[in-house]
Amino acid sequence: MKTIIKYVLLDLLRNRVILFYTIILAVLAVSVLGIDDNPTKGLLSLLNITLLFVPLITILFSTIYFFNAIEFTELLLSQPIKRNKVLLAEYSALTVSLSTAYAVGIGIPLLLLVSGIESFILTLIGILLTFVFSSLALLIFVKFRDKTKGIGIAIAIALFFTLLFDGFLLAFIYSFSDYPIDQAVVGIIAFNPIDLARVLMLLHLDVAVLMGYSGALFKKFLGSATGSIFSIACIMLWIIVPLLLSVRIFNRKDL
Amino acid sequence: MIKIEHLSKSFGKFAALKDINVHMRQGQAISLLGPNGSGKTTLIKSILGLVIPEKGNITINGQSVKRDWSYRSLIGYMPQIGHYPDNMTIDQVFALIKEMRKDTHDYDEELIRGFQLNKLGNKTMRSLSGGTRQKVSASLAFLFSPSVYILDEPTAGLDPVSSELLKEKILKEREAGKLILITSHVLSDLEGIASHIIYLQDGDLRFYSAVEELQAATGEEKLNKVIAHIMKNESRVAKTIQ
Amino acid sequence: MLPYKLIIVLLMFLPGLSWAKSIKVYPGRNSFQKAINAAKRNDTLLLQPGVYKEHDILINKKLVVIGVHYPVIDGEHTSQIIFITADSVILQGLQVQNTGRSSMTDMAAIRVQNANHVIVRNNKAFNNTYGIYLQNAGFTVVQNNIIQANSEDELNSGNGIHAWKCHDLIITGNDVSGHRDGIYFEFVTTSAITGNVSHANVRYGLHFMFSHNDTYTNNRFSDNGSGVAVMYSKGVTMTGNIFLHNWGDAAYGILLKEIADSKINHNQFLKNTVGLYMESTTNIAVGDNQFNENGWGIKVMASCSGSNFTRNNFTGNSFDVATNGTTMLNHFSENFWDKYDGYDLDKNGTGDVPYYPVSVYSVVSERVPTAMILYRSFLTGIMEQVEKVMPSIIPDQLKDDTPRMKKWKL
Questions:
Q1: Could you tell me what percentage of chain C is helix, strand and coil, using 3-state DSSP and rounding each to the nearest 5?
Q2: Model confidence at A51: pLDDT above 60
Q3: Residue C275 lies in a domain
Q4: First to last CA, chain B
Q5: pLDDT for position A214
Q6: Could you say which of A15, A71, A79 has the minimum Cβ distance to residue B101?
Q7: What does the pLDDT look like over A69-79, one tens digit per residue?
Q8: A79-93, A239-253, C374-388: lowest mean pLDDT where?
């Protein structure tokens, strides 16, 4: 498995799209952080970029990559090796290279130009989201045979989590605002990895304002380490569950 | 060597293989023939474990393909389409597969030298022509001197010289007592190589017999003539063989 | 001419001076009270180190009481400890601890009652219900005392420095923590609170009611349950204070309620849930302050009028300004807002388009607090942009027509 990770990683690190992605992120990070003498504002811009583009680009690139590598995957599978090892190795190499792109493009400029826990959290968020959405891409790959269909679904998933989900949630919150729905809302948030990532950042940037709301649950959830632990744990599930599902499906998949 | 018993496989409603029973032995060079969609690829992939059989059993040297993956170290597989990661070099591809098959240390690099791939070691796969990639695939299949070769359209896309080189290599391995399973659309390429023919149609195994028998039954010398004859007078010939 | 007069004055004081004595007091059964009773007016009592287990000690004549190396006066949780009822008493260098607790009387470690010109300085007051309690006192100085307690709730605790019906006080350099309110003023006029540190109190760092024409400068209020509350007063001047890290659903850097004709200048509001909360105020000048990393920089209710907000810096706040209505009778100008993204074509340092400091989402989350969980999502970003193009929710009178392009150096 390590062998496959190593060589696929060597391939991906020279991949033009990944290089381009890294450069674009770096340019964005440096320009956003450099223009303003106000680091918080730059941090927020980068948060928006991260929440919007990292999921979309990760899931699209990963889906396309998995479908394009299908013949190579078959060749690897014809060697004496367990099926799930090939799959997990390809996933690892892919997600590590995309995370590296993010860490180099956004993480390093951020940590150099803006000190503080927020920079660290944002870098962590970007990497976690990369893991989540490449994991989802893998699930798309094992679930569907057709590449075009897979790409369509990848875009739909990214769009759903970045925009539609929040729209529905806001509608829900508005229509049931007279009821004690805090707990339900926290529960619902767990079903969107992008929201979880955002909340993780919110807990550090806006804890003062969050403390201003009287909901006991919010205070308990958002005010202490519990909120962060909850968010990270849920994001981890968003990585692990699609991965396990993918392995299960892949073990029975006809190539 | 490879024993296939009651193998069935369907994709949705489409029955790709219907109750196939074949016993392939060492020293045979079996040509797998049949029209498109007849189940050739499915059969190959079943042996490789890429397709999971629905019913039936495949054993290689008595080892079932279902659970244990270690039997695949007996096989050298050359896929129909050689598609590799863009930025991997030829050397890296070889190194990767070598590291995956650590059980073998005697490498058969005859084809690598024959195709002169050793001079292209640093070229990335993206920069290679389809033919060269095919050469890489072929070299990989033969690299570990396996007991079984599964070659899917091996000569497609190869230039005549390389094609000839590959055929010689196949013959040599056959004489060394290896089992060779080969599909090809170009029947003339199989001339002199194939010792047996498996003919599949609509997922059914039509026949599995030695080339000499077929020649005798049809009265034709050339392989493509033999096959053409069979296709024309299928039912009668089939009777004769059986 | 002058030296002659001076000599006469000095001679007039001579008898008093010659009779004043210094008396050393040692620990013993009621030795402190006995020493007071035996002392004459103007005598100095030097309390030697040790533990004095006494309470309800009454200083009813003009004395100077000096603790040597902080002798401990221990009330043993029974009652109040020191009463000062005479003018011009000086009390310094004592460690006064363990008053009783009662729901009937306010148990104080040091109580100054109906006296003027008292000085209470350099004392330590530990683990008392009330630390220093001033009642009907005037011209009294409370200086450099350390006052600590471990209160857990508002009901069973008292205030660090408590002043009621006083005037002309100077409260300076004290460090108060762990009480209900750090410093409490009720009906106190023309007094100054300067250079104190009030932190980790259960309720307010400073609680201030019906107290007119007072000044508080250079104090630091941090981590108090509800920050600082200033209510029902006029002519209050607040300068150079730091309000730090007051978090909670009713926690404010400062809460202003029914305050008039007052000034808030050069203060720093850092990391509070609400930096400055204003309700029913009139004519307040809020200038040259820093509002940094608060939940809300300012919450100004529609009941406020005639206040000017100028030359303040607003940086890193989740929301800069929030309000509860659509009318706005207060004026914002020349502030620096880090969220402003207008332009300055004529390069005069002032943005060419107004800044609207009320964020849509602050209005939304005010109505539906749960919606806060969606803050900073792509969706809420769109809402902000839409509102900028077609304003419909935010009060359009609340704006800064002359936003600064660069931060004020304050």
A1: 15, 40, 45
A2: yes
A3: no
A4: 23
A5: 61
A6: A79
A7: 999 999 999 99
A8: C374-388
What six digits make up the tokens of A138?
Answer: 């893998």
Give the pLDDT score at B237.
Answer: 54
Here the CATH number for the domain that contains residue C147 is 2.160.20.10
Query: Is C317 part of any domain?
Result: no
Dihedrals phi, psi of C229, to nearest 5 degrees: -120, 125
Cβ contact A30:A109 at 8 Å? yes
For chain B positions 55-74, those within 8 Å of chain A (CB to CB) are 69-73
Q: How far is A28 from chain B (nearest CA, A)?
A: 27
How far apart are the C-alpha atoms of C254 and C139, rounded to whole Å? 27
Task: Kindly list the residues from chain A whose CB atom is less than 8 angstroms away from the CB atom of residue C377.
Answer: 51, 166, 194-195, 198
Q: Do A3 and B96 touch (CB under 8 A)?
A: yes
CA distance A181 to A185: 6
List the domain range (segments joined by +) for residue C121. 20-225
pLDDT-derived band at A183 (thresholds 50, 70, 90) equals: confident
Among B52, B72, B103, select the one facing A78 at the smallest CB separation.
B72
Rounded Cα distance between C396 and B217, Å, is 98
Instruction: Show residues of chain A in contact with B97, CB under 8 Å.
Output: 79
CA distance B44 to C358: 69
Looking at residue C344, the DSSP 8-state letter turns out to be: -
Pick from A22, A21, A45: nearest CA to A33: A45
Write down the CATH superfamily of domain B2-241. Answer: P-loop containing nucleotide triphosphate hydrolases (3.40.50.300)
pLDDT at B235 over 70: no
The pairing of beta strand C319-322 with beta strand C183-189:
unpaired
Q: Is residue C252 part of a domain?
A: no
How far apart CA A137 and CA A239 sit, in angstroms, is 11
C359 — pLDDT class (breaks 50, 70, 90): confident
pLDDT digits (tens, 9 = 90+) for C178-229: 999 999 999 999 999 999 999 999 999 999 999 999 999 999 999 998 889 9
* Inside any domain, residue C270: no
Residues 238-267 of chain C whose Cβ lies under 8 A from any Cβ of chain A: 247-249, 251
Mean pLDDT of A201-207: 83
Q: Which of A37, A48, A173 sits opposite C371 (nearest CB)?
A: A173
- 8 Å CB contact of A211 and C247: yes
**What residue ranges do the domains of chain A occupy?**
2-163+239-251
Chain B positions in Cβ-Cβ contact with residue A81 (cut-off 8 Å): 69, 72, 100
Is it the case that chain B and chain C have 3 or more CB pairs lying under 8 Å apart? no
Q: Which amino acid is at C348?
A: N
**Quick one: average pLDDT of C314-327?**
88
